[in-house]
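Please, structure for the following, as tokens.
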Amino acid sequence: MAKRSRQTFQKYQKEQARRQKQNNKAARRLQAKQRQAEAVTGMGESPLERPDRQSGPPSAPALGDRVSEQT
């Protein structure tokens, strides 16, 4: 009977390993989807990574500044 118990335990370990592998794979897929979505929208960039862009609304020109008008 010891052999039967051992096979059951091995089967249990094998199933646990399979479940863990599936969970890891699902997590990797989710992370890949999030990375892809961030790359498309550009939301993943921090302010330090994009110094050419300013956060907030654009500032209005101060009094006395010349603004060229296109006609």
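The first helix runs from residue 2 to 41. The two ends are 95 Å apart (CA to CA).
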